[in-house]
Description:
Blueprint: E1 12-17, E2 23-28, E3 32-39, E4 46-55, E5 63-66, E6 72-75, E7 80-85, E8 91-96, E9 100-105, E10 111-116, E11 128-129, E12 135-140, E13 143-148
Antiparallel strand pairs: 1-2, 2-3, 3-4, 5-6, 7-8, 8-9, 9-10, 11-12, 12-13
Amino acid sequence: SSVCSANAEDYISSAAISNDGQSAIIGTVNGRVKFYSMRNEVTREWKLNDTTQIDVRPERAFEVRIGSEDGVKRDLAKKVCGIVPSPSDREILITTNDAHVRTYMKNDKSLTRLYRGHVALNNCIRGTYSNDERFLMSPLGKVLSIWDK
């Protein structure tokens, strides 16, 4: 059975727990990342408390026509595909289905770096850190992108 739960406003597309076990992090299909503390500091009971929300969508969302015969437009700059805390637990790697991989500081949720080149139209691929946090990696189909931080 679960020790605690919380309802999100949007559909959850990815989730992670910080390496120190103090925070739960969820990503949604609408490009939001929500942070929860996992324990009530006073009673020490397990409880998810909503602490912070960041919007990882770019300022201008873009659309790409997928399939010329159906004429369907889909917004690519939304879905959070992966959330990976760095091994040191200082940063959070956020992978979305647009052309970006983003890193945020865990303490103040500030954007530290934006990596370009990762595109996932119909699937969600999550990136990862190397153990020494020097490199970021994100695969897609037959292409593997590795960035030196």
